[in-house]
Each structure stands twice: as structure tokens, then as C-alpha cells.
Write a structure and sequence with these properties.
- By secondary structure, the chain is α+β, with helices and mostly antiparallel strands.
- The protein is built from three helices and five strands.
- The chain has one domain: Peptide deformylase (Peptide Deformylase, Alpha-Beta Complex).
- The longest helix is centred in the last third of the chain and has 14 residues.
- It is globular and about 45 Å long.
- It binds ligand GNR and nickel (II) ion.
């Protein structure tokens, strides 16, 4: 999974994107691309529903499109590492955005699901051209 993420120049990847049916996401938001994070069974709890930050998000599964999504910035994340040890953290900023983006993938949700019906139809007709 890490290999695919680096090959595609993505900052994150969900197992479901590579047809791997486990609850695993990998993320690397470092500039040097040498700080891979692996989250197994990630669970997000929103700590503050008012801490919303908009972010222009791209997705490897929808090439060429970018969608502004507003997500909470104050979240608590619980996950397991590759050894099965439990962790808890409060990620913010791009990391929080990316984690929620990848968890969406695990749940079969895509950026297009955040679009208004009109924008969605436009994107669709562009994609089928
Ligand atoms: O590479 C990616 N960039 C990105 C930018 C802003 C918000 C989310 C992302 S995730 C994306 C890689 C991807 O599609 N992972 O599923
Ligand atoms: Ni994506």
C-alpha cells in the first residue's frame, strides 16, 4: 500500500482503493515523503462539531477533480499499529483532513458524495466524455 501511495504521489491511501478489504489506511504528509504512517482500524471521534475547516481535496480515485470539503478539525483518533498496539491522538490540520478522507474510502464514500447534485452531474458528464 505504501508503494502504491508513493507511486501515485498521494498523501494517503485506503486499503479499499487497492482492493484490499481490511480497515487500514496509510498516510504520508511529509515533504520528504519519508514519514509513512499506518493506521489499522482507525476510529474517529469528533470532539468539536464547530471546529470546521474547508480544504480543497483531491483524490486518486477521481483523477483531475478537486472538491472543497469542510470537515471538523478537532478529532480524536484511535487506532492500532502494525503490531496491534493501541494508540490515541488528536490530529489536526492536513493530517486530520487526510485521515477523514481515507476513512471515508473505507466506508465506500467518495469526494463526489460531498458535492451538490448539480456539480455532481457536471463532473459525471465530464468523466464520461
Ligand atoms: O493525494 C491526496 N491528496 C489529498 C489532498 C487533500 C485532501 C485529501 C487528499 S488524499 C489524496 C490521496 C487519496 O485520494 N487518498 O484516498
Ligand atoms: Ni482518496
Amino acid at each position: 500500500m505504501l508503494e502504491t501511495m508513493y507511486e501515485e504521489n498521494g498523501i494517503g491511501l485506503a486499503a479499499s482503493q487497492v482492493d484490499f478489504h481490511e480497515r487500514i489506511i496509510v498516510i504520508d504528509i511529509s515533504d520528504e515523503r519519508n514519514d509513512p504512517l499506518i493506521f489499522v482500524n482507525p476510529i474517529v471521534k469528533v470532539l468539536d462539531n464547530k471546529s470546521l475547516v474547508p480544504c480543497e481535496e483531491g483524490c486518486l480515485s477521481i483523477p483531475g477533480a478537486s472538491v472543497e470539503v469542510t470537515r471538523p478539525d478537532k478529532i480524536q483518533l484511535n487506532w492500532l499499529d502494525v503490531k496491534g498496539n493501541e494508540h490515541e491522538d488528536n490530529p489536526q490540520g492536513l493530517l486530520a483532513v487526510c485521515i477523514q478522507h481515507e476513512i471515508d474510502h473505507l466506508q465506500g464514500k467518495l469526494l463526489v458524495d460531498y458535492l451538490s447534485p448539480l456539480k455532481r452531474a457536471r463532473l459525471k458528464s465530464k468523466a464520461t466524455k
